[in-house]
Design brief:
277 residues; mainly alpha; two-stranded antiparallel ribbon; 11 helices; 2 strands
């Protein structure tokens, strides 16, 4: 076994233990993890796009926004964190439009800030949030694993050759099927259900996960980098590990908001809304 493979296995196990333990305990522990992930994603985004070199003042403002969002997320101030996110994205977008700087600044604030918020709100502090978070993990991880192995075994037409030459349509379909099975199995092991909402939701999140993977590949190809960073030994950066998870969380979070708004504006946990329990 090579040193690189040993590092990959050990760091992968450590990461899985940390994430699953935080998911199990929930509360402030998971919110702190979500906040840290948001900060690390912005660090990698700003490094890849060279925001410090392109727009140091704007990047400093971006860091201020992410620190405030992360702090509010860790302290369970979800409304405040969303307001701060909207404000900083709007202000930096206006700055870019006026000064002609990089649009990667407001994009990075939105991408990183919403990552922290969506993760924290999906897990929430109740049992339904715990199941929903496991459901999201299951759909994303099943998509990643089976897309790789099915794609390698079957091959065939490329999914997006100009962005990620290794991905195939067979892998994408295989990953989506596995995600539906894995996600549905997780939810149905905790709650009984007879309709097709959970399998459909798993399919939607799987597709979003694959779009997120392609999006990060596009960003890295745009700036000519192989890994988002070297923060994780043997694995590259945080964005490399959570690219699909980020888009799946975005989809779950935004879908839950839309459903909630149709329910007379009443407040529900995201787990209750999306799982229908």
């Amino acid at each position: 076994m090579s040193r690189e493979l040993r590092l990959r296995i050990i760091s992968g196990i450590i990461l899985a233990v940390i994430v699953l333990a935080a998911t199990w305990y929930g509360g402030s522990g998971f919110r702190l993890l979500a906040a840290v992930i948001g900060l690390l994603v912005y660090y990698e985004w700003s490094t890849i796009s060279d925001l410090h070199g392109r727009d140091p003042q704007g990047n400093a403002l971006g860091w201020l926004g992410l620190v405030l969002i992360a702090g509010a997320t860790a302290l369970s101030e979800s409304v405040y964190s969303i307001e701060v996110l909207a404000a900083f994205v709007a202000v930096t977008a206006i700055m870019v439009a006026v000064r002609g700087k990089s649009w990667w600044l407001p994009g990075g604030i939105f991408y990183s800030g919403l990552t922290a918020i969506a993760l924290a709100e999906i897990r929430d502090d109740d049992f339904r949030g715990f199941v929903l978070m496991l459901f999201v993990f299951a759909t994303v991880w099943a998509t990643d694993i089976f897309a790789y192995f099915v794609g390698r075994a079957i091959g065939g037409p490329k999914l997006a050759p100009s962005i990620s030459p290794g991905k195939t349509w067979s892998g994408a379909i295989g990953g989506a099927i596995a995600a539906v099975i894995a996600g549905t199995a997780v939810v149905w092991s905790f709650f009984s259900a007879e309709d097709l909402w959970i399998p459909l939701l798993a399919l939607v999140l799987s597709v979003c996960s694959q779009i997120g993977d392609l999006f990060e590949s596009f960003v890295k190809r745009k700036f000519g980098v192989k890994d988002s960073s070297r923060l994780i030994p043997g694995h590259g950066g945080v964005m490399d590990r959570v690219d699909g998870l980020i888009f799946a969380c975005f989809a779950a979070f935004l879908l839950a908001i839309v459903i909630t708004l149709t329910m007379s504006g009443e407040t529900f946990s995201l787990g209750g809304v999306l799982l229908g329990v």
